[in-house]
Amino acid sequence: MSLLQVDNLTVHYPGQSLPALQQVSLSLAPDELLVALGPSGCGKSTLLNVLAGFIAPSHGTAQFAGQPITGPGAERAVVFQHDGLLPWLDVAGNVAFGLKLQGVPAAKRAAIVADTLQQVGLADASDKRVWQLSGGMRQRVGIARALASQSRVLLMDEPFGALDAFTREQMQQLLLQVWRQSQRGIFLITHDIEEALFLASSLVLMSPGPGRIVQYLRPTFSQRFLAGESVRAIKSDPEFITLREQLLASLSRAQQQEAA
Ligand SMILES: Nc1ncnc2c1ncn2[C@@H]1O[C@H](COP(=O)(O)OP(=O)(O)OP(=O)(O)O)[C@@H](O)[C@H]1O
Ligand SMILES: [Mg+2]
Known about the structure:
single chain, alpha/beta, Rossmann fold, six-stranded mixed β-sheet, four-stranded antiparallel β-sheet, 9 helices, globular, binds adenosine-5'-triphosphate, binds magnesium ion
């Protein structure tokens, strides 16, 4: 059964002439990393917000494990573009925050926090304050917090958008390793074609005006990375470059149609 399933989803915000999303259908299997790629305004965050349960569909359905999504739930952890860390807590406190709210006992909480900080390479930073961290470290704390929640799926809205190219690439590799270790479904939004191709086991290309899916792809580059191939070899492979250029062409075509 799909972890997430969206059928004919339309979201029309009040007062807007066009729907933000029109008749969008997709599904996420439990072991998939599904990427939604598209330009600004094509409805990516709207889609994630429906999956997170923050907004309701105008038409169509959104389901988690076969049940309609009616609000936020601990089984669907969200990583926001801006990390949303709590500055008055240290790193461990931020990662433990959701667990504390859920009433997980202190000893178990500490074990989960230590384990997830280890996974994201921040074992030595657990007592640091948020303002002592670099941008990349902050993003990793955000990811650790989502992982610690023991959710079945991670919903990530442009999680690496604010990072420099080098840190971004490191974070992409870390995410793939975390994905393999944690065995969760991931839904990730990006407007970066290279990032989408490298990470996705399944990819939807979206277009604005109204927001819709214009192409479905199943790239295999993340599997090649996890099998040991280097990121540089993958991203300079002619197959990768050809697909990247095709996606770029599809995106510009879709934008020209919107402008026409
Ligand atoms: N709360 C809202 N009320 C009204 N319109 C909204 C609301 N949220 C988003 N929109 C509109 O819906 C469309 C899709 O917005 P959305 O934020 O989903 O796009 P996006 O693909 O995430 O863009 P970006 O890449 O810039 O984050 C846009 O035209 C936006 O102006
Ligand atoms: Mg957005």
